[in-house]
Amino acid sequence: MAKKISTKNVIVEMDGDEMTRVMWKMIKEKLIAPNVDVKIEYYDLGLKKRDETDDKITLDAAEAIKRHGVGVKCATITPDKARVKEYSLKQEWKSPNGTIRAQLDGTVFRKPILVNNIKPGVRTWTKPIIVGRHAYGDVYKNTEFKVPGPGKAELVYTDCSGNELFRGTIHDFKKSGGVIQGTHNTDSSIRSFAKACMEYSLDQKVDLWFGAKDTISKTYDGTFRDIFTDVYDKEYRDKFSKAGILFNFTLIDDTVARIMKSEGGMLWACKNYDGDVMSDMVASAFGSLAMMTSVLVSPNGWIEYEAAHGTVQRHYYKHLKGEETSSNCMATLFAWTGAIRKRGELDGTKEVVAFADSLEKAALDTVENGIMTGDLAKLAEPHAKKICSTEVFIDEIAKKLNSIWK
Ligand code: NAP
Ligand code: MG
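Structure tokens for the assembled complex are given below, as produced in the milestone run.
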């Protein structure tokens, strides 16, 4: 008989949609509930409930994370026109992830799950590379203009009393037209981003790397560099030195070159566009979307765990038809273990942390022993011994867990 423990404090649970909702339930029932009594505050962020509550439930869930500090979220549908029809929605509700991120002023970090039978595309990467993407401003909130012909483009700033404090020529279009673009960021958003990165580096006990193009963009990228350096010097230098980790700022091209030659094992903080591009590169080099976790960290230390992938809609429709699916629950499982471990660390309950470690080990051992879902079987070396349905895979993890967690 396995020992049964309980968490001291609450984890905010946010349920979701489609195939991930199906896996969510299995993970809870087969892997967690038999071993740990997790104190839960439950929010159903399934699309139906969001529609019923006019999406108030998403805001309530975000508030709950602020109260309890730790949340775990299942993937959810961000509705488009087709979903409005499919679910007869009152409107095209906003992305719950976007809403929660805005409420917590959080930064998203993506971290791959590594197993020894799936080799990363880059040979030297033996440790996970965590990518933190600044999710505000730059080209994603730009103003652009297609210049039709000769004329002058200027950058003008007027303060709120109407004084023109700056006017600079972007370009004098002499012979023909072209394009112009205006982008911005705010000091407070950059500062929050820097703090979230430093908090998460400390949490993960990994070095923090940040690169920007401050030699060319002396003011714009230079401001990112200055704010990061300021936050580090004032609030984190001592904490980093106690934890034995480093912060280094270099030119973005140098950062990229050094990442490629590294063994991994760092947090790579990226400006918005760099993060958009680099997180997809890093994710695909590590193998599979189903092995990528995602963590939302607020500068206040509130933290929410989830899988990086969506609700795996294609598999869900097969599931609804009664067909067996081979959806991979690893990232969703690691969202749960991340939240449970964090709860244990915050509460000082060693056995709760040990359970999270054991469950992760059981899942990793299962895959490394050649038992896996179809997506991983395509990548595994040596070949998979057994390719399982979602449910059988979870049962295999449960078997392994029973032999570890006694
Ligand atoms: P998706 O759920 O990420 O799935 C895309 C494809 O990736 C799947 O069809 C499958 O490939 C593969 N895949 C993803 N996760 C997998 C897993 N756990 N196991 C095995 N294969 C996996 O993206 P989507 O189908 O384009 O989006 C579905 C819904 O998810 C959308 O409504 C979107 O709004 C939502 N979404 C939510 C989040 C979130 O809540 N964090 C993030 C992204 C998208 P094969 O079909 O080739 O097997
Ligand atoms: Mg992208």
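The CA atoms of residues 4 and 34 lie 7 Å apart. The domain at 1-118+287-406 is CATH 3.40.718.10 (Isopropylmalate Dehydrogenase). Further analysis is deferred to the final report.
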